[in-house]
Amino acid sequence: MNCSNAEPVTVTEGQNIQDIDFMLYLNIKKGDFNFDSNVQIDDAIICLKVVTGLIPETNIKIDADADGDDRMSIADVIYILQMVSGLRE
Question: Is the dihedral of CA 67, 73, 75, 76 positive or negative?
Answer without folding.
Answer: positive
